[in-house]
């Protein structure tokens, strides 16, 4: 079998794709065509998974009741998080938009099955969290695919996972990775929103330690 090679132009475009990936909070309400959504979701399967266990579990949150429950969950968790901030940080936190649930046409709760039927435990005996890492890799594949299609993805982690699990009626072996908002972004930018809001700055280089 001949090894697959990629052109310098492709590699440059791939780097540019990763550079322009953003965590989106502000969406237009225009619907996402089903074939396009299917391509994004199918990209999850291209990710590596420990023991080939494929532990990702995706719940599409469509009903008004389920979305309202998720939004209320976020609102309460966000209010509690605000109480943990002080002074100038509290004011900055209060000004941040940390969820796209109000407008995103597609909303997904993505879980890790901590007891998957596949994989026979290979690679997870000493590090069971590898299953969660595998799902995060799948999310990354979906994120880059969505960005290449002009879509934005927002990762919401300010939630009570147990409450969401009850509201969505998912199995007890499923561990929440995140609640994801997917849709057409209001604008495209090459810098993170949190950086533009003055919350934090991105490092210019990767700290590498050698032992």
What does this structure look like?
The chain has a single domain (about 25-190), classed as NADH Oxidase, CATH 3.40.109. About 40% of the residues lie in helices and about 15% in strands. It has helices spanning about 10-20, 35-40, 65-85, 85-95, 130-150, 160-170, 195, and strands at about 55-60, 105-115, 150-155, 175-185. It has a 4-stranded antiparallel beta sheet with strand order 1-2-4-3, sandwiched between helices. Helix 2 runs antiparallel to helix 5 (about 130-150) and helix 3 (about 65-85) packs antiparallel against helix 6. The radius of gyration is 19 Å and the shape is globular.
What are the key terms here?
211 residues; alpha+beta; NADH Oxidase; 4-stranded antiparallel β-sheet; 7 helices
Tell me the radius of gyration: 19 Å
Q: What is the level 1 CATH name?
A: Alpha Beta
Q: What is the fold named in CATH at topology level? A: NADH Oxidase
Order of H and E elements: HHEHHEHEHEH
Distance between the termini: 38 Å
Strand arrangement across the biggest beta sheet = 1-2-4-3
Major pleated sheet = 4 strands, antiparallel
Put simply, the count of helices is 7
Envelope shape: globular
Q: CATH-wise, what's the superfamily?
A: NADH Oxidase
What percentage of the residues does DSSP assign to strands (E)? Answer: 5-15%
- The CATH architecture classification is 3-Layer(aba) Sandwich
* Class from secondary-structure proportions: alpha+beta
Number of separate strands: 4
Helix percentage range: 25-40%
Q: How many structural domains does the protein architecture include?
A: 1
Low-confidence stretches at least 5 residues in length (pLDDT < 50)? none
Average of per-residue pLDDT values = 97
């Amino acid at each position: 079998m001949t090894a697959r090679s990629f052109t310098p132009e492709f590699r440059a475009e791939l780097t540019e794709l990763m550079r322009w990936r953003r965590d989106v909070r502000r969406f237009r309400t225009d619907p996402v065509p089903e074939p396009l959504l299917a391509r994004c979701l199918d990209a999850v399967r291209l990710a590596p998974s420990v023991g080939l266990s494929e532990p990702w579990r995706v719940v599409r949150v469509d009903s008004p009741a389920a979305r309202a429950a998720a939004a209320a969950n976020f609102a309460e968790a966000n209010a509690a998080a605000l109480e943990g901030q002080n002074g100038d940080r509290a004011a900055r936190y209060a000004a941040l938009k940390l969820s796209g649930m109000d407008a995103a046409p597609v909303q997904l709760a993505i879980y890790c099955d901590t007891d998957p039927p596949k994989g026979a435990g290979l690679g997870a005996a000493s590090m069971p969290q590898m299953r969660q890492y595998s799902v995060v890799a799948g999310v990354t594949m979906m994120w880059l695919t969505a960005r290449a299609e002009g879509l934005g993805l927002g990762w919401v982690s300010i939630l009570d996972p147990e409450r969401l699990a009850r509201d969505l009626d998912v199995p007890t072996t499923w561990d929440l990775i995140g609640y994801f908002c997917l849709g057409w972004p209001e604008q495209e930018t090459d810098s993170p929103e949190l950086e533009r809001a003055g919350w934090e700055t991105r490092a210019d280089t990767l700290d590498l330690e050698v032992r």
